[in-house]
Amino acid sequence: MSIDNLRNRIYKRLYRLESWFQDRATRLFAWLYRRPVESRETYETVGGDEVDAYMFSNESMLFGQHTPFGTILLNKHLLSDVSGQTETHVVQHELSHRDRNSVIRGLWWGIIFSMAVGIAYGLYGGLLVLLGVSVGALTKLFAYSAILVVTGIIVNRLEETKAELDALHALGEGDFRAAHEEISTIGERSVVGLILGVLFYPNPETTISLYNKFQQIGLYGE
Ligand SMILES: [Zn+2]
């Protein structure tokens, strides 16, 4: 066997091992988030590529999610009733997250994890206040909590804005607007859901005007 042959065989094995790990890790992640995978489906992107998505079903308003393992989860239940452009919007948005530079993606997951720690600090501090500890004694704890949470919100907002810009770039303004109009009419959002939506996601009109500005300075060319 030639050395090239051997190398190819090793690469193939490694690729299969990586796919196997990616598949198991995605399913475990989805299960931990209480969105167990029901099936795998293939979607066509605007560019004509085929992408693999892991499907889950639940009543939440979450259309899709990317995982730390370079895969995407889509809510079959929500996507079954929407138009093609909305489905495309959701897929392109999640693909944008998925295809982010791996260093940035790693930092993002780290910051999201830190935000969860920040929330836990805040809740713990609140509990101590209820138990009679003075707020003054907990200043540091609340400051750490606030820094972690605010950083998480800002970074997440930037990441979501980038995903929205990429989705707009792929769909074009008309379909992007139509998709958002349709999404806004679906289901009922809880108060918490509404607050999180405003904090984390840019409004579609803001995305469009930002996109136009970027185009003027040569970003997002044809
Ligand atoms: Zn997103």
Describe the structure.
- This is Peptidase M48 domain-containing protein.
- Keywords: Membrane, Transmembrane, Transmembrane helix.
- The chain crosses the membrane at residues 106-124, 130-155.
- It contains 8 helices and 4 strands, in the order αββββααααααα.
- It is globular.
- The model has no long low-confidence stretch (mean pLDDT 92).
- α3 (84-98) crosses α6, α5 crosses α6 (173-185) and α5 crosses α8.
- The chain is of the alpha+beta class and 222 residues long.
- The longest helix has 33 residues, at 139-171.
- The protein has a domain at 76-216.
- The protein has a 4-stranded mixed beta sheet, with helices on both faces.
- A hairpin with a 5-residue loop joins β3 and β4 (72-75).
- Residues 93, 97, 160, 163 line the site of zinc ion (ZN).
Please, what is the average pLDDT?
A: 92
- The arrangement of helices and strands along the chain is HEEEEHHHHHHH
**Apparent shape:** globular
| Straight-line N-to-C gap | 48 Å
Helices and strands in order, then pairings?
Layout: H1 3-32, E1 39-44, E2 50-56, E3 64-66, E4 72-75, H2 76-79, H3 84-98, H4 102-130, H5 139-171, H6 173-185, H7 191-200, H8 204-216
Parallel strand pairs: 2-4
Antiparallel strand pairs: 1-2, 3-4
The structure holds zinc ion.
Question: Which features does this protein show?
Answer:
Peptidase M48 domain-containing protein; binds zinc ion; 222 residues; transmembrane; membrane
